[in-house]
Amino acid sequence: MNSSLPLSCPADCASVHATANDPDKRRWLIATGAAGGAAVLATAVPLVSTFAPSERARAAGGPVEVDLSDIPPGGAKTVEWRGKPVWVMRRTPEMLAALQGHDAELADPQSLKDQQPAYARNVARSIKPELFVAVGICTHLGCSPSSVPQGTANPSLPADWAGGFFCPCHGSTFDGAGRVFKNKPAPTNLEVPPHRYAGETRLLIGEDAA
C-alpha cells in the first residue's frame, strides 16, 4: 500500500494532512483563524477600557493645574477642585502688610487648627506670600464668602476694615489670609488645600509641596 499516511494515523490526523496538501483549504482556515482572533481582540478592548477611570473620575480626585500668568496683582481666579471652588489670589504688598497687627481680633491667628498643610502654617498661610490659595467655602454652614477690598464701605464691616473676605449669609469675616475673626459664626479659618508650584506660572492644586 503506497500511502504517505502512517497506518496508525486517526481520522482527524488524516484531515489535517489533507488540508496541508490543499492550498485553498489551508488559506481558508488561516483567514478564518485571523478573523476569529480579530473578533476576540475587538471584544477584549472595550472590556479592558471599562477598567480605566473616566476623565470625570480622574478630575474629581486628581490635581488641578492653574495658570498663574494672567492673574494681576490684587486679582484672583476661581477653579474647581474636588467639586469645591478654590481661590487663587495674587496679593499686593499692601494686602500682605494688612495681615499684620490684628492677631488679638482673630480666633486662630497662628493657624493652629488643621485647616491647612504644615507648609502653609504661617502669617500669609501660603508657600509664596504673594499667592494665596484657599477653598472659597465658609467654615460655618458652607456658604460662599466674597472678597472685600480694604476701605470698602459696608455697614457689616468695621470702619477700619483692612481687607479680606466676608460671608453675607451669617456675617463671618476673614482677613486676607482667610483667618476668621473672633465672635463670628465660622468656627475655623478658611481651608487651604494641598498645593505646590510646578514652575513660575504653574500651580498644582491637590498635590502637597515637598
Which key features would you list for this structure?
2 domains; 210 residues; 9 strands; alpha+beta; Rieske Iron-sulfur Protein; three-stranded antiparallel β-sheet
Fold blueprint:
Layout: H1 11-20, H2 23-49, H3 55-61, E1 64-67, E2 76-81, E3 84-90, H4 93-97, E4 131-135, E5 146-148, E6 164-166, E7 173-175, E8 195-199, E9 202-205
Antiparallel strand pairs: 1-9, 2-3, 3-4, 5-6, 6-7, 8-9
Describe this structure in words.
The protein is an alpha+beta fold. The protein folds into two domains: 11-49; 56-205, 3-layer Sandwich (Rieske Iron-sulfur Protein), CATH 2.102.10.10. The chain has helices at 11-20, 23-49, 55-61, 93-97; strands at 64-67, 76-81, 84-90, 131-135, 146-148, 164-166, 173-175, 195-199, 202-205.
